[in-house]
Amino acid sequence: MAKIGIYGSSFDPITNVHLWTASTVAHRCKLDKVIFLPCSNKRKDKEIKTENTHRWDMLQLAIAKDERFIANSYEMEQEGWNIYTYDTMKYFREQNPNDDIHFIMGADLLVDIGAGLWKNGEALVDENKFIVMARHGIDMLSTISRSPILRNHDDGRFHLIDKGLAMEISSTYIREEFAMGGEPKYLLPSACYDYIKEHNLYQK
User: Which segment of the chain is annotated as a signal peptide (predicted)?
Assistant: First the structure.
């Protein structure tokens, strides 16, 4: 039985912090695999202007040298307005029935789930396991205890992690730097930096 983490994001572009986070979580939680799951560019809650093919190609370049990391296009291939995390996790559990599947997320998302803001949130919590990464200013234990959705399922399914180092360089920041003629060369994998330059991505 493999222990697998599902790590979703827009990855627009993937950054060194994404990779560092995945590596840290894999090491601390003894994961055999981390599945990088880029979201659909049709999602209503995200404004993604980069073509799927570019995000996918950069992701492949970024993870090529780490055998623990796998890219999966499941959500990218869905109609964005019809896909929810509950459905995604159900899909991966069905695809890997003998494995231990965990959803990797930040504490900010834990707050939203606990507040009932996610579609099928209670069923999502009831049927899955979670690796939750600390975010500045969020008390994860308090978040769980204050939410009936979360505390009623607090049976060990929430693995809370403080990575020990706050690294908050975002994809948004990198896109803005490129757009303004900045130089974010060392904030993302060198192969992705070269790809962005070659394809003139994120330019005004």
Answer: none
